[in-house]
Amino acid sequence: MRQILLSHGGGGKETQKLIKDLFFKYFSNPILEKMEDSAVLEINSKIAFTTDSFTVYPIFFKGGDIGKLAIAGTVNDLTVMGAKPLYLSCSFIIEEGFPIEYLEKILTSMSKEMEKSQVKIVTGDTKIVPKGFADGIFINTTGIGKVIYEGISAQNLEEGDCIVISGTVGDHGACIMAQREGMEMDSNIESDCESLWDMVEKVINSGVKIKAMRDPTRGGLSAVLNEWALSSNVEIEVEEDKIPVKPEVQGLCELLGFEPYTLANEGKIVFCVDKKDVEKLLTVLKNHQKGKDATFIGKVISKGKPVVILKSPYGTRRVMEFPSGELLPRIC
Amino acid sequence: MSKVDFLKDFRDSKRIKAISEIIYKEADRSINIMEICGGHTHTIMKYGLSQILPPFINFIHGPGCPVCVMPKERIDHAISLVQDEKNILVVLGDMIRVPGSESSLAKERAKGKNVKVIYSPFDAIKIAKENPQKNVIYFAIGFETTTPMTASLVNFTIKDQIKNLFFHVNHVLVPPPIRAIMDSKEAKIDAFIGPSHVSVITGAKIYDDIVKSYGTPVVVSGFEPVDVMESILRIVRQFKERRREVEIQYTRAVNFEGNVKAQQLIDKYFTTRENFRWRGIGDIPYSGLKLKEEFSYLDAEIVFRDILPSKQVDDHKLCICGDILKGIAKPYDCKVFAKACTPENPLGACMVSSEGACAAYYKYGKLELTL
Amino acid sequence: MCLSIPSRVEEIIEDQFAIVDTMGVKRKVSLHLMPDPVNIGDYVLIHVGYAIAKLSEEDALESLKIYEEIIKELEKEEKAEILGDSYE
């Protein structure tokens, strides 16, 4: 099997060959191919700007791989600020000896994922480190998007506002957990890893007023709602039995003693909207393949006390904790 | 397909509500109920069951979390063992976060020491076979539920002639700490909810003596909220009808005799220790197990005795875990609760594992604090 | 620690092992501690990789029956109360 060698990162002939034969094959576009020291872009608008590094292990998991995640993650970070994703940068840190076949597989899924939201990688970098200095491959992507919807903020929540989640929670976290080394379990839990711009664009175009919007990645639904409660100084009440959870994700949580709402998602969005917009939002989401399990899960019930409450169907209440103190593997 | 959904049917909100209503109708006196097992503490807090019970039904959270009750000197043993590069320590679950006198296994692992978390004792065999030049030490913890798995592992070690797998045994028993708590006089306990899965192994027979000695009803309960509610109803009814007996609510899994095969395996390899020191409670005679003498060549406490510290370590001065376990204090009564003592940085036994009383209050009980 | 989730036996494999399914998650578990023979379709309790007991469907149904009776009893009383109210 062909492998990445230290010489591939030396800046000489081998580096050029790697870039031209491999990266250009999958990422080709006129701006990238100029091969200048930086990409020159023209955007006449407010822009959103974000960065994220990806170290997930295992690098190939059910429903995706580190490459798909690296595109979807950054696209979604732009998306939840109401920005249409346009350009990405992409840096690889690769461990010496990494199979080129794996790298190609990762590049293929990156290129496929970029097509979904029409974003382009316009600048990039590759470093090769000696064996043992990294674990396989790490990827960083940075993204620029054009803001087409303004005013989204975690500080916008008011009494009476409604919370909607675009689908089942915990899929990505549970998937990675199940495939973790030593678990020896077999399940069909797939990561939900997915770019969501096309779905959110439909919501924006529908005229629904989005007060707050987040992708619940690390820390899950619980982290997003707790951050909102703090930023807006409000009490949020969630009905526990309405939170959509796939049975096998629930099963894994039972086995390991986790709560699905603290597990990571990579293809979901939590919305906060005015009560009058809930029906419309649900209709738009449910008409989209990625939002078919969208559910209204709770409400902002009062001001002045930042806390998230889980309400049971038989009337008891408890705090939905900020996730903490868990021993989590590398999930993204 | 089964006609029963063994999980959902016992979490059904209509059933929980109905039993709650009946308890409100029938309960006529204050009852302090100790749920012995941490799993029940977890269920009570997670499902907020005290919110749908009369205020005079009071829960006292018992000592049934094997991770929590592990004294510091035992952790110090584990830490000493991994200082030698030739040793690999394998351990189940959240044991690695428990602080010893100076460090924890998690901190040692971060320093690069050989600490491996496993999900089943079988993984210990695999690790031993993959590392023939190393000594693999299984740090065995748990109540009667987890002891038969260690016994089975000992059985395989002998049968497969695995020469590099050793056992550091910290198994403990349920009845002795209950007796220790009841004998302490300060304890204010009227009835017990008996552990689910300990009882699957031991059978409900082990609680007979408790009822006889202390006149306290024991109801062996399942872990789901409907189970716990029904068990409380059964306790209420015992008091109304002036009965004091061992009852099994968890009939779908527990009988009086228990899993005899598992019991025989335990008896084959283990014997009681004269003393075991419990975090939060102190010394309790005959409350722990060790390998029988003929298997001392597998016993890490004997094989590695030269490197194991023998110092006893006292519990943290401000920690009131002992009182919480006896039922004379609640986690909120503790000065350091949620301040100096948190799940990320536990000082005392009850905060250590997610099944400990303080950790459960920290995670689920904040509502009462914020309201 | 004492977590133990009901799981369905899917397949019996050699050397006293079985594949069980817990809400869609499949795992290999040991049957070495089971006192009685285990069959496909049985529900068992699993603790750290070992099956420790068969769950009795019959006893579970018995429990469910008790709950149904409690619910019926309550509904009857409620109805009686409502009737009582309307006559006042």
- Average pLDDT, all residues of chain C: 88
By CATH reckoning, the class of the largest domain in chain C would read Mainly Beta
The outline of chain A comes out as: globular
Helix content of chain C: 25-40%
Largest beta-sheet characterization of chain C: 5 strands, antiparallel
**Mean pLDDT over the residues of chain A:** 93
Give a quick precis of the structure.
The complex is a heterotrimer of chains A (332), B (371) and C (88). Chain A has helices at 13-27, 30-33, 66-79, 100-117, 171-178, 197-205, 220-232, 247-256, 278-286; strands spanning 47-54, 60-61, 64-65, 83-95, 120-129, 137-147, 162-165, 185-187, 210-214, 234-239, 270-273, 295-303, 307-311, 317-319. By secondary structure, chain A is of the alpha+beta class.
What features would you describe in this structure?
The complex is a heterotrimer of chains A (332), B (371) and C (88). Chain A is 30% helix and 26% strand. Chain A has helices at 13-27, 30-33, 66-79, 100-117, 171-178, 197-205, 220-232, 247-256, 278-286, and strands at 47-54, 60-61, 64-65, 83-95, 120-129, 137-147, 162-165, 185-187, 210-214, 234-239, 270-273, 295-303, 307-311, 317-319. A seven-stranded mixed β-sheet of chain A has the order 9-11-7-12-10-13-14. In chain A, strands 1-6-4-5 form a four-stranded mixed β-sheet. In chain A, helix 3 runs parallel beside helix 4. The mean pLDDT of chain A is 93. Chain B has a five-stranded parallel β-sheet. A four-stranded parallel β-sheet of chain B has the order 4-3-5-6, with helices on both faces. Chain B has a single domain, classed as HypD, alpha/beta domain 2 (Rossmann fold, 3-Layer(aba) Sandwich). Chain B is α/β, with parallel strands linked by helices and 371 residues long. Chain C is an alpha+beta fold and 88 residues long. Chain C has two domains: 1-55, SH3 type barrels (Roll), CATH 2.30.30.140; 56-88. In chain C, 35% of the residues lie in helices and 35% in strands. The radius of gyration of chain C is 21 Å and the shape is elongated. Chain C starts with a strand and ends with a helix. At the A-C interface, strand 8 and helix 8 of A face strand 3 of C.
